[in-house]
Amino acid sequence: MIDKRLFQLPGIKPLFRMLAGLTILQAFMILLQAKFLAEALVISWQRQSLNNIVHPTIYFIIAFLCRHFLTWVKDAILDKYATKTTEDIRGKLLDKVYTTGPQMISQAGSGNIVTNALDGMDEINNYLNLILSKFMNMMIIPWIILIFVFFQNITSGIVLILVFPIIILFMIILGYAAQDKADSQYAEYIVLSNHFVDALRGLTTLKMLGLSKEYAHNIYTVSEQYRKKTLSTLRIAILSTFALDWFTTLSIAILAVFLGLALIKGTLPLYPAMVTLILAPEYFLPLRNFANDYHATLNGKNAFTATMKILTLPSTKQRQLLPSLTWNQDSTLELQKINFQYEHNQSLNNLQDINLQVQGYQRIAIVGQSGAGKSTLLDILSGFLIPQGGKIKVNGQDLPHLAQDNWQQQFTYLPQKPYLFSDTIANNIRFYSPEASDAAVKAAITQAGLSKFIQSLPAGLATKVGQGGRGISGGQAQRIMLARAFLASERHILIFDEPTAHLDIETEYSLKQTMLPLFDNHLVIFATHRLHWLAQMDYVIVMDHGRIVEQGPAQQLLTETSGPFFELSAHMRGDQ
Amino acid sequence: MWHHDTWVKPYLKQYKFLLALVLILGVLTTFCGGALMFTSGYTIDKSATHPYNILLIYPAILMTRAFGIGRPTFKYVERLKSHNWVLRVTSKLRTRLYKTVEQDAAFFDEKYQTGNILGLLSEDIAHLQNLYLRTVFPTVVGILLCLIIVIGIGYFDLWFGLLILLLLAIEVLIAPLISVAVEAGRRQQQKELKDHLYTNLTDNILGANDWVLSGRQQDFKQTTQKTVAELNKSTNHSKHFRWRRDFYLQAVLGIIFIVLLIFTNLCFTNNAERANYVAAFVLAIAPVGETIIPISQGFEEYPTYKDSIIRLNNLHPTPQKLPQQQHLQPENFQKLVLDHLQFEYDADSPVLIKDFHQTINRGEKLALIGPSGTGKTTLLQLINGDLAPQKGQVLVNDINVLALQKERQKLFAFLNQQPFLFNTSIINNVRLGNEQKTDTEVQKALAAVKLQDLIDSLPQGYNTPVQEAGSRFSGGEQQRLALARILLQDAPIVLLDEPTVGLDPITENDLLQTIFQVLADKTIIWVTHHLQGVKNVDQVIFLNQGHIEMQGHPQDLYQNNRHFQELYKMDQGILIKR
């Protein structure tokens, strides 16, 4: 009913004590409110004058206001805690993204993490607020009321206490039945509910196929199917609420009858009967509130679980092993028998026994089919993935992995589809070197061949790009990345992952002319399936199914007439 | 906003009987709740007078039970009926939204694909559902209940009736309106902050690699912290407002209790039989309070509803004006003339296509190459009549293509970058190409595009669902499915819009081979971004900024044009030294 992990949240125990105290106080206010209301009603019933109900009425309203004021206070205290806790969790999540980020993101999915850090946090907040207050109310208020009722009239007390387990039992049984039914319909249900968006997204295709007009009818039919399905699920799903309502109202009715009979017999005076009747709905109210919000909290619970799962993923440690380093002509990097798999217990490793030696300002191409492991190898080299076996040496120093702060600040990474931050072009270019002067940025822009483009923009370098900013073509985005690399001149390593794969041939051609000067005095590691780059490379690594199947100087591989490289390049070119 | 509304008001009328039923059930639910307390109160008051015969309270006991059962039953039925009503309206709204957007399909990509307008529109319909369920129904039910109470009390004493009317009006009218007034601005601000936060977080997570490389851990956290702080401040204000408002609403309920205590003390104590109604009147108000106090909360979402209603009402499609439609047998197609086309999206944007002239004979194959944004896709849309040129015309055998729109799916087939696959089975997806075709013909088409082996390997075979947007299959496989669809469509002219973009070279090669093999007898206009497979065409056109930069037979170009030669060599990975 309540998640045990909640009790492990920092600061929750004092909060619980505080809430419990306030709730007990509140329960007494409910008793007082009922007591004075009953008194006033009995006095009126005895046909005494208005003066005589003044005092009970005033006490009633004071207790009534106190009760609701306590709700306000509890909500405020709880919300403050929930907000603080949620922000702590969000902070931890972001820390996790930074320290273990890329590996974790590839495991959890980037969309997932964004949703988690945004909507998920709202849901957790809501969850903490609802579950703690409703749970506390349910655990305290009914029992205090029950004890009080026992003191007034034992029969009523017994009626109330008997109903409680019956309600819970029925709710559980019906809840399970509804759950089973809902589960069995879920997949179909999702298809139906997504059908509309599906149709809207596919409208262009429908139009091309000449079906768009008739399809409107289909929309209506499916929507009606969805309606019927929803209603048949709902019919069962709300049965548990129905049962709860049924038992609570019926037990109030039964109670009224019992009380009436006792009154007729004269075994009970009016006042205790009245107080019991007033308290009966209050006795059930916390349970009803808990049940009403229970479904609303399920999302929060799921978000909480998902976030906790991310937070318990292992963090990358030992990030500071490598002393400050500037890659130069004599620097070396060595990989020995590196193994990696994305999911444990795969039959095939994503990388298998990778051996590689790199020195100075070499230019190394990594070629292979899609899925051969090129990007995985690049991610190991950039420290975004942690190898599961093997040795790494930088300048002779043994390292467990390359997620070293000082290594990662030594290179520039150019992915297939560069990510532009929602910021100005200037700040995107300055991303690695926020302190760079305007003149330096200007120079980098010229080197990256962006000057003309930037002049054509009304806001120039201050143009916003990225999400919510100006749309920008793939070629220009790559040039912004190149400008970033030109600007970060203290980084002497370039890691490229098919940077021109998505570009049209002419853009690729002109971009290539821009990129070549950047290669000077840099170690270049370049994954590509565009073979023309090999002319600019010293060394080629051929990968297949996670292994290096061939490696050697570029000139040597290019003249071969057989072997893995020869076959790969023939296959790529087609039979032209 | 409500003046010209056509998305909410008409539907309130459409199923008015069901709507009335929903509202009556809503009223009955709370009425029974109140009546249960009323009769219970009466029962014990009456019993306390020690009636000589138990039969005297028997009617009251019966009614107590009836109301006790009535309340949950009415509530159950009400929930079902209200969902039924809302979903019926949803079906209508969805159909209407679809039809509205469909009329616009010419400018579809320009207008809707960017910025997820489609997602927004379909969410708008969900918002309308909530508008009914959370705001309209509870408010109307609340008002009706209040009227019943006021009339009931006014019957005994006019002034008390008026006083209660005033107090209840605060609960169901004034407080909700104040809530809207106070919260509208804040909600707007929160929405903006939330969008901002979303952007920040997306930057944090999608750009995580770059952040790590930059070494700027402090900046990384700070990007979101400021927005989060502002957002929390604003939501905090909202929450405090809500708590305070709810407290005041409870206080007003407290006053109603007092007024009823005074009212019953003054009006019901003239004889003993009437005094039995004292508790009844006072206790009946508690369930009513539970129903009317949440009304204000339902109003807080009003700004969201308002945005949705405005957006839907602002949808004004611009249907294409087409000339008198003519008829052309697909097998009679002879040539396609692009007659000095000129096109711009609107007066402010630059001219995208300038004086473009080309004649394509039946069976010829043409490749269009050029950087993104030069109007290659636009040209395809001009050819099939999705767009109309400002100058010039597209002629199919001397008939303007705009006069052939009624039967254009018989003339043109289109394969785009990401063909859309509907979330249904393989066979249904392919059959969309031509719904008259038999299963065997569909299977033949699938075999032609070389999917036979793949389908045989699937347990459900042809009935395998493709999942949302075809996600069960790889990019190359999705293209093949779409290609099978085109084969069934069997139109003489096929327009290909970069069908291989994003595929790796080997998959690309294989797919291009299949495409040109199965479409050998068709007229093809193929937009592509590089030169892979270009030997399959008769003509290559390099477009740049709306005009033709280079044109010719690929082999002639290779022999005579240095730039083409360099591009071709680069594309083929034939090495050029610096």
Key terms:
heterodimer, A: 576 residues, alpha/beta, six-stranded mixed β-sheet, four-stranded antiparallel β-sheet, 12 strands, B: 578 residues, ABC transporter transmembrane region fold, Rossmann fold, elongated
Describe this structure in words.
The complex is a heterodimer of chains A (576) and B (578). With 576 residues, chain A is of the alpha/beta class. Chain A is built from 17 helices and twelve strands. Among the domains of chain A are: 169 residues, no CATH class; 114 residues, no CATH class; 72 residues, P-loop containing nucleotide triphosphate hydrolases (Rossmann fold). Helix content of chain A is 62%, strand content 11%. In chain A, α12 packs across α14. Chain B is built from 22 helices and ten strands. In chain B, strands 6-7-8-3-9-10 form a six-stranded mixed beta sheet, with helices on both faces. A four-stranded antiparallel beta sheet of chain B has the order 2-1-4-5, covered by helices on one side. In chain B, a hairpin with a 2-residue loop joins β4 and β5. The radius of gyration of chain B is 35 Å and the shape is elongated. The mean pLDDT of chain B is 88. Chains A and B meet through α1, α2, α3, α4 and α5 of A and α2, α3, α4, α5 and α6 of B.
Describe the structure concisely for a colleague.
The complex is a heterodimer of chains A (576) and B (578). In chain A, 62% of the residues lie in helices and 11% in strands.
